[in-house]
Design a protein that fits this description.
- The chain is mainly α.
- It has nine helices and no strands.
- The protein has two domains: 45 residues, Arc Repressor Mutant, subunit A (Orthogonal Bundle); 124 residues, Tetracycline Repressor, domain 2.
- α5 packs across α6, α5 packs antiparallel against α7 and α5 runs antiparallel to α9.
- The longest helix is centred in the middle third of the chain and has 25 residues.
- The radius of gyration is 22 Å and the shape is elongated.
- The termini are far apart.
Length: 206
Amino acid sequence: MTDEDHMTVPPPRRKRDGSLRKALVDAGVALLRERGPDKLSLRECAAKAGVSHAAPGYHFKNITGLSTAIAGRGFALFCQAMEQRLDASPPAATERLSAICQGYLDFATGHPELFLFIFSGQKFNEDDEEFAVHASRAYAILRETCAPLIPEGTNPEEIEILVWSLVHGYAHLAMTRKKENPGLGRGWPELGTLVTHLQKALPDPG
């Protein structure tokens, strides 16, 4: 090929099929797994994705944009894990409550880097449509599942946060291996056992 031929070859066109965005989010998730949220950067993600350091600018204005996209994926997988358990659950309200708790734990154990990231207090763009849809859906699943179990005259959020606190605390303790701390002095119960105790404290919806 001559120099003239080189000059007439058009520059590579930027892909517009979403593959660049996906590659950058994939790279971000990998960095979270390897280094934690403090080491996340657009330049590092670009390098890991095998693209130029300027490439992220086509999709993300700054690190908050990339973080939001990663969190959006996390919430989508979170919803998927709870809904898969719900789909396989008997229709009884108490069984459905147990199902979303198990789905919560499935997500935490299957995607620990995303579990820690979406609840890390990182700054996300809450106006981002994809993020907002999945984040809102995650809480809606909790709210819809708890609704039949709310005692009359009780603020629904009290029961919702009670359930959330139980399952989130359990998942986080298990993930950080505090359950193996010999100072606990007793065996580590299964999540289902704790949920059963919680169900006994709630009214029977009939």
